[in-house]
Specification:
Blueprint lengths: L1 E5 L6 E6 L6 H4 L6 E6 L5 H4 L9 E6 L9 H14 L6 E6 L1 H13 L6 E5 L2 H7 L4 E6 L2 E8 L4 E5 L8 H18 L8 H18 L14 H10 L6 H18 L5 H14 L12 H10 L7 E5 L6 E6 L1 H12 L1
Parallel strand pairs: 2-9, 3-4, 3-5, 5-6, 6-9
Antiparallel strand pairs: 1-2, 7-8, 10-11
Helix pairs in contact: 3-4, 4-5, 5-6, 5-7, 6-7, 6-9, 8-9, 8-11, 9-10, 9-12
The structure holds glycine.
Length: about 350
């Protein structure tokens, strides 16, 4: 079992990684809690949904939410709040989010809002959740106008990453996690593929924990975790989510390298390295589907909530990956049109 600490000044917490780590859940639940509201989905494996087995002295209530981006909504939050009211969840109690990134984002936001904030513990059941979504306290829901537009920073009291959950994860969900994992290669240069899966997941969490600890509310450096995400968000929207998040991130990483090269920040060999890691080592698609329009994608990138000043990208360069605001549209258009061919 591996334990990674997210070192925040007054709210540090542990992430427990390993097979069977669900058994550590009681250690992460605050001692004040009597009632537990489990926020989960129908499809989550039963050994993770039925956490009452690990918390026999607690009053455990399971509340199911829907699947997919459409259910990541304010309507879902209202339904959850009404369930919390019926359960009689108090400020001393706890929410436990059991599922992938969508579930932990929603459960975290519900916990952040209920009685102006109660503790939340996440049990992450997908690779993407383990290496990204469940860690770092970003919570929220979508609006018809955009993804994750309503939310809060709300750090969990602890996170369980039980690798047993990956044994039954559909291949596409696994690929999505690999897309986020590929990102960490370029942030640190670590040879993650030389590591066993549990060590690699723990290392990705450690990298994320260090970045989050240095900039919890994304005043600057945390945006590095969005490497590959600027184009990825636009691709997700323009394909109506036919491309899942991690698949879009994999493509976005290679495009970010192409743009970095167009701007003279990196050479062709480094672009090829991006393609080799994403396509070769992680076996992910590196090119967008055919028929997409560069102008439409650029429009969507302008609307992305992270585009503060003209176009903001996270780009590789001589000093490593960094946030680059104010990128001119012309090189973006040139490199994107080539990329889409
Ligand atoms: N997923 C990026 C972040 O947590 O900041």
């Amino acid at each position: 079992m591996r334990r990674v600490t997210v070192p925040l000044v007054d709210r540090s917490y542990d992430v427990i990684v390993g097979n069977g780590s669900i058994a550590e859940l009681p250690d992460l639940v605050p001692t004040s809690a009597r009632r537990v509201a489990v926020v989960t989905q129908a499809g989550i494996p039963v050994q993770f949904r039925e956490i009452g087995a690990y918390l026999p002295d607690h009053d455990v209530h399971v509340v199911e939410i829907g699947d997919g981006e459409a259910a990541k909504s304010l309507a879902t939050i209202e339904n959850l709040m009404r369930s919390f009211a019926q359960i009689g969840l108090t400020r001393n109690d706890v929410v436990v989010g059991v599922g992938g990134g969508m579930v932990t984002d929603v459960a975290g936001f519900a916990a952040a809002s209920w009685h102006r904030g109660i503790p939340v513990v996440h049990v992450s059941t997908t690779l993407l959740g383990m290496v990204d979504a469940a860690i770092g306290g970003k919570t929220g829901v979508n609006l018809p106008e955009g993804k994750n537009l309503v939310g809060a920073f709300w750090q969990p009291s602890g996170v369980v990453c039980d690798l047993d959950a990956l044994a039954t994860l559909p291949p596409r969900e696994m690929r999505c996690g690999l897309g986020e994992m590929a990102k960490y290669h370029f942030l640190t240069g670590d040879d993650l593929l030389a590591m066993a899966l549990d060590e690699r997941i723990a290392r990705c969490i450690e990298i994320k924990a260090e970045v989050v600890a240095s900039d919890e509310r994304e005043g600057g450096r945390r945006a590095l975790l969005n490497y590959g995400h600027t184009l990825a968000h636009a691709l997700e929207i323009t394909t109506g989510h036919d491309l899942a998040h991690g698949e879009a991130v994999a493509i976005g990483l290679v495009y970010a390298a192409e743009l970095g090269c167009e701007l003279g920040r990196i050479d062709r060999a480094r672009v090829d390295e991006h393609t080799a890691v994403v396509a070769g080592e992680y076996d992910l698609t590196t090119r967008p589907p055919s028929g997409l329009d560069a102008a439409e994608l650029i429009g969507l990138m302008h609307r992305d909530k992270k585009a503060l000043d003209r176009l903001t990208f996270v780009l590789d360069g001589p000093n490593g990956v960094e946030v680059v605001p104010g990128v001119d549209e012309a090189p973006v258009r040139r490199s994107l049109e080539r990329f889409l061919r």
